[in-house]
Specification:
Serine Threonine Protein Phosphatase 5, Tetratricopeptide repeat; 71% helix; globular; CCR4-NOT transcription complex subunit 1 CAF1-binding domain-containing protein; CNOT1_CAF1_bind; Not1
Length: 157
């Protein structure tokens, strides 16, 4: 189902999703989406977000956000994060996904889950800046977009 999503068939795929996937399977699906799709396919983030908007399920969005936070934390605690560019790439992609899924949708980033300021301080102390700075930058990109729009509106007034 996810392999064949496009802008042209999104309505039909969202309807099919709602008919086929029961709510009890949302945690499994959320984990699949985060680890097998969002962390590996950053070029499709916007498409996936539009798809979830069409599916229009608060409980699914909650599970996806939960899986995103959990997987970000797993990667941030990984011993390989210093030496493995693949691990850092997954983390960076999840940072982009997290930013688009929260800030990009006008929702707050939960500091109790992931606090960028604390992450940066801790990364400095542990020598993990190579992984944490790209991650936090990707998380904050949607905020920069909103700031840019806000400043443009202020200038036009």
């Amino acid at each position: 189902m996810i392999n064949n999503i496009s802008i042209s068939n999104m309505e039909a795929k969202a309807k099919e999703f709602n008919e086929v996937i029961q709510e009890q399977y949302y945690p499994w699906f959320a984990q699949y989406m985060v680890m097998k799709r969002a962390s590996i396919e950053p070029n499709f983030h916007d498409l996936y977000l539009k798809f979830f908007d069409k599916v229009n399920s608060k409980s699914l969005n909650k599970e996806i956000l939960k899986a995103t936070y959990e997987n970000c934390k797993v990667l941030l605690r990984s011993n390989l994060i210093k030496s493995s560019s693949e691990e850092r790439s997954l983390l960076k992609n999840l940072g982009s996904w997290l930013g688009k899924f929260t800030i990009g949708r006008n929702q707050a980033l939960r500091a109790k889950e992931i606090d960028p300021k604390s992450l940066i301080v801790e990364a400095y102390e542990k020598g993990l800046m190579i992984a944490v700075i790209p991650f936090t930058s990707k998380v904050s990109i949607p905020a920069n977009f909103f700031c840019k729009i806000f400043l443009q509106r202020l200038q036009s007034d």
